[in-house]
Amino acid sequence: MIAFVFPGQGSQKVGMGVELAEASSAAREVFQEVDDALNQKLAQLMAEGPESELTMTANAQPAIMANAMAVARVLENGGLSLSEKGGCVAGHSLGEYSALAAVGAFSLTDTAKLLRTRGIAMQDAVPIGLGAMCALLGADLEKAQALADAAAEGQVCEVANDNDPGQVVLSGHAEAIDRAVAMAKEYGCKRAVKLPVSAPFHCSLMQPAAQRMQFALNDTPPGAFRLPLYANVTAAEVTDAATEKDLLVEQITGRVRWRESVLAMQDAGVTHFIELGGKVLGPMIRKIAPDATVTSVVSMEDIDALAKEI
Q1: Tell me, what's the pLDDT at 196?
Q2: Which residue from 263, 201, 238 is spatially nearest to 96, judged by alpha carbons?
Q3: Is 272 a catalytic residue?
Q4: Distance between CA 133 and CA 209 in Å, rounded?
Q5: Contact indicator for 3, 265 with CB cutoff of 8 Å
Q6: Catalytic annotation on 92?
Q7: Catalytic: which of 171, 202, 261, 296?
Q8: Strand bridging mode 167-173 / 131-137
Q9: What confidence tens digit (pLDDT) does each residue in 210-248 have?
Q10: Residue 7 DSSP one-character state
Q11: Positions of E strands within 236-290
Q12: From the candidates 11, 24, 92, 93, which is the catalytic residue?
């Protein structure tokens, strides 16, 4: 069984989507529709930068989605139906919205608008400098949780992403994250690296953003989806749109349980993971499920190769 998976923030880079747009009218249509939805020349920003503007959360989130959906649209137009070839979908953080768009739960326009709202809400939830995130390398979930508990000292310090067996991300107050970085080796981590992010994502400090997304999703709830989705916050299959709406709200403050999600998909029979629009999830999946086939699809060459493969 095939799982189509979609990357999250951090996979953006200047030049993304350029080759697809030059080669495919289907890709150009995706980028134009997103530009129209946001009343912004986002495709131009993706192509030309500046990088500092592209990496702003409010721009990066719809840009990453647009790039992934351009790949999906080119595949679909070439006769490769995701809903026919796939058994399920999943996405990392904002990638869950891309996954939902790919299986028909959201229109492309609505997905772009939701992610713009999400990006602004997450940025606005915590004043710049008050929050931070760090990646723990060579740490499993148990070590990361023990470190987070010790570093908190009455502040927020929480596990934000359980990415793979050797990488866990903490999020919370900047001082608590600094303490966690300083204490990491004492708790068995190889090293800790502060992340270049503008807000502490996926922790309880994001509660104001969750409230804003509750309103946004009430106005634009997901519809029925053509394939089951594995949700970040439960690491379990979801098929009910109303349930998924609540999980998308919970996801703002909740842990991205990516490692567990991959294992759950593998247990359900997935043997081939195909990442659309990035090459970030592939290395994680290989560490989680070394026996699985992993394919990352970004370029027209990748698309052509995949079409021949499956």
Answers
A1: 85
A2: 238
A3: no
A4: 17
A5: yes
A6: no
A7: 202
A8: antiparallel
A9: 999 999 999 999 999 999 999 999 999 999 999 999 999
A10: -
A11: 237-238, 272-276
A12: 93
